[in-house]
Amino acid sequence: MAFLALNTDKLKENYQYLDALFKEHNIEWAVVSKVLCGHKSYLEEVINLGVKQVCDSRVSNLKTIKSIAPEMETVYIKPPAKRAIKSIVQYADISMNTEFETIKLLSKEAQKQKKTHKVIIMIELGELREGVLREEFIDFYAKIFELPNIEVVGIGTNLTCLYGVLPNHDKLIQLSLYEQLIEAKFNKMIPYVSGGSSVTIPLIDQGLLPEAINHFRVGETLFLGTEPYTNQQYKDMHTDVFQLYAEIIELIEKPVVPMGEFGVNVEGKAYEIDEEKLGETSYRAIIDLGLLDVEETHIEPVNPKLNFVGASSDMIVIDLGNNEDNYKVGDLLEFKLDYMGALRVLNSRYIDKVKR
Questions:
Q1: What is the pTM of this model?
Q2: So which residues are the catalytic ones?
Q3: Which of 68, 221, 292, 319 has the highest count of CB atoms within 10 angstroms of its CB?
């Protein structure tokens, strides 16, 4: 049976590396836990690292976090849906917002729950995902400051996730200037300028991070040890915090070229046959992992001799060539994952999750 293993020692070392980096530059940071998909045992490991703030995009995950550590400061990191307002005020100490009508609802619900709900207002800096337009930003803020039981604790932006717009020095300087404008116009301090994410970390070493950027939200680099834009490994971080294992459930030497009349497969793909390979054979292994769990484009065999042939809903076929390593039925194959691969596997209820 396929399973995912979390290496707790390597996770801790990755956390310590990032924590030291951010402390050296007087930056506060939060762990983005959405890749864990609310898995309680894994969330406990993250919280035990000494994390002070956890971000997630699912209210149910924030609820799990609060059940583990009621004192943990939680951040809901996408514009709230109106139907979720009650739960967001209950389980998120802070939410990121872009719609005034939504913040009004958060204000009313916070009054009902006798809480002060904190908000970070996201500004649009070119990525065209969530964010208030720059020309409307000051007027937007003016209205929010009047709402009861709402505390504005920051401004932020999101870059890279949709179109790949990079958080360069110029973009983050713009964010910094808006903080200065707001503080000057309204005579109110804005604690967080949340412009940092995994893809922003290289700016620290390059000396290009504006001083005003004092808050980062980091998930991918913590769990994968890589810089998202180039997928390059950080020198002192681990890329194998997660390890995926799948069992060989069939291993037979078969023809390389399929036979019969061809249509399309379950993904709607039509294959062209390489007639030069007619008559050739190779050892093909089927593993207990499929498209229902993860796409093969997001995982990579640790053994470089192995090659993906294709996948269906519940099985992936791998070409072992001459099977030089003498694999047999029942053996486990190990895979590396990228961020989307980890997200998909962790979201699959069919893959066991263990710790090491």
A1: 0.93
A2: 34
A3: 221
